[in-house]
């Protein structure tokens, strides 16, 4: 069975429709229809990698946060990000929308001079009667009551672990540790990457409502007021103590001290050393092998057929793939809440991977194969926008692309989360980012998916998992025996099988892939040489390959520079050595003199500066 990128594009369209639907049905926005229009334009701009993304993002955020309901799109001009042009587009879009549903288009708002009109009203008894009515509307504020599992609720519960009347207080970290289990949002990480406040901001609200005393010590300490204790007791009565009442907390609970160990166990870190050892063992068992010059040198493949029902599709999540250092379990927990069956462990390649996990753990051992997981055809590399910029600057981006291409996995999905950046900072690197995205799509054949925040990424991964379960679990899998694999024949063998059996997919065990894809264990001289070349400014993977075709090894390139001589004439020859050989090429393979000079400064050694 072969899955194409058309499946991903179909899922992409469904995901975009979901985003528009979320905007239209948003109960937190006073203008959901207008917000839906802006959300659609924003998503279109993202898909086209347009420079208008920043403009639409500002408009979207300001409209979503606006508490005022507009009667006409022109009123949105008062918001950040909205000008005459965007308001005009909104008006046209709303008119089309009204025509479709058969509703009249709202009229332009009239400018009313309410103050001046009020001045001409006579001073009769009606005016005197209005004053008391206005005063009557000023009701006494209601007693502040935090919502269940909200930020302030968790803080109240945490502080109620102290003895009533105690003024010793808890530090901020102690409060957070006790409050987090009783709050749906994080006290340390913003729920939305475009915002900067966390659930801890509710501490200020509790202080204003005289529910918490904040002692200005170093560090600050917090304890409940008498009103705070009354509120805590009401929470205890309202909710079952076994589900979060104050009696269940104990600040001196010894289990708190082992929270890091528990988290490590939850995420598979406890067994991380064993996984790494197994990967190294497999890497040692897969030889380098001879360089393949023709298909006749490839081994004969007698695939092991895994019948439907003998395995389940499972998501693998890298244990370093976290929301933040202080919120390591967010991604895994949210995926589990959505019904995704997953394993968290160190991955040799990528951030998210899908495998066929054998129902019988010893099934593969009958064929002398290690482990109980078989690789599928999809892998995900996830990057926040700021991470992507950083990896482009330090060269990790090209090295990661190189390893993904060498993995033999047919479908690489590159997820980019639109982490909120300073506009000036983003504009500085916008061209590099757009170039990198285009290169991944056009040159490398990667599928690039852009999401607004981590929750959208989690939703997308959930949809992918369900799609893979529906397609893979109904068909048999063909497994290549590990004993015939070498680091040199792996990619040529996959290419040969694809040409010979275009309608079928061939897989290997996850342990074998981990060994072949090791960052250093199976690197050939050619691999290392290409990576060395790509460290030079201006050298992409395509240019590095062309250089390697002409000078096969680092020794050959260094020898070519030495033959140029060290006098002034030789120095100029060194600067032009590569450009003279590759200046005639077209497109991305061409190397200009400036880049050729950079290469000479690195590889020409003596006599070049």
Descriptive notes:
There is one protein chain. By secondary structure, the chain is α/β, with parallel strands linked by helices. The chain has four domains: 10-101, DNA polymerase, domain 1 (Orthogonal Bundle); 151-257, Winged helix-like DNA-binding domain superfamily/Winged helix DNA-binding domain (Arc Repressor Mutant, subunit A, Orthogonal Bundle); 269-516, Rossmann fold, CATH 3.40.50; 525-603, Orthogonal Bundle (DNA polymerase, domain 1). 48% of the residues lie in helices and 10% in strands. The protein contains 25 helices and twelve strands. α1 runs antiparallel to α2 and α7 (151-159) packs across α8 (172-179). The longest helix is centred in the N-terminal third of the chain and has 20 residues, at 5-24. The model is unreliable at 22-27, 111-136 and 240-284 (pLDDT under 50).
Structural topology:
Blueprint: H1 5-24, H2 32-47, H3 53-65, H4 84-101, H5 114-119, H6 125-137, H7 151-159, E1 170-171, H8 172-179, H9 202-208, E2 212-215, E3 221-224, H10 226-238, H11 254-257, H12 259-266, H13 272-285, E4 304-306, E5 311-318, H14 330-337, E6 342-345, E7 352-358, E8 373-384, H15 385-394, H16 396-406, E9 411-417, H17 423-442, E10 447-451, H18 454-472, E11 477-479, H19 490-500, E12 506-507, H20 510-516, H21 525-534, H22 541-550, H23 554-562, H24 568-582, H25 593-603
Parallel strand pairs: 5-6, 8-9, 9-10, 11-12
Antiparallel strand pairs: 1-3, 2-3, 4-11, 5-7, 7-8
Helix pairs in contact: 1-2, 2-3, 7-8, 13-20, 21-22, 24-25
